[in-house]
Amino acid sequence: MAPPKQLRAADLAPGDILLQYNQSNIAGKLIAFGQAMVGDKNSELVHAGVMFDKTFMIEALMQGITGSDIRVQNKSFAYRVFRPRNTALGQTEGNVVKFLFDHHQSHKSMRYSWRGAVAAIGTARPMSADNVDRMMDDIFRLKPTAFFCSQFVVMSYQLAAAQMGLSPKSIFPFDDAKMPPSRLAMACESNPAFENIGYMQPNIR
Fold first, then answer.
1. pLDDT beyond 80 at 28
2. Which domain holds residue 51?
């Protein structure tokens, strides 16, 4: 088996999931500790986002859904990178997260959820059948909705799958509200729809 490839921005594609390693700040330490306490593998992965293109990652941060240039704002972070094997799904996901980013910039209706991030560290549960439709209705109605980072990744991928006529459960079968970064990494590792394409080191872009 070949060792993981060291990636640069030029190697990335729309829909790539970037899972950020703990940088030993307070928030990262708390998330890693909580994930380790419940026995999750990959507890050192503490944040997640999705690539819109080769340079901009869409992510849920304190200001809500935002876009960050991985060569500038996120240059100092290390990531593990997963890619959907279905190129069309990746392209659709890139369009979905860009739409959600633009929607939040216009309406400021998709804020960050610290409470959700903490509550996610617990027992996983199956995805509700109407979860995707309900979430999309709330977003279009400008109902205030709150997300934490890995929940945003899962929810947006479930939306992308639905847009393509695929079952959202075929991509991520678990409730987005119960998917902390460590569990998202586990889901990507075990899901044949994704592959681990490599890693990004800090300050190498």
1. no
2. 9-200
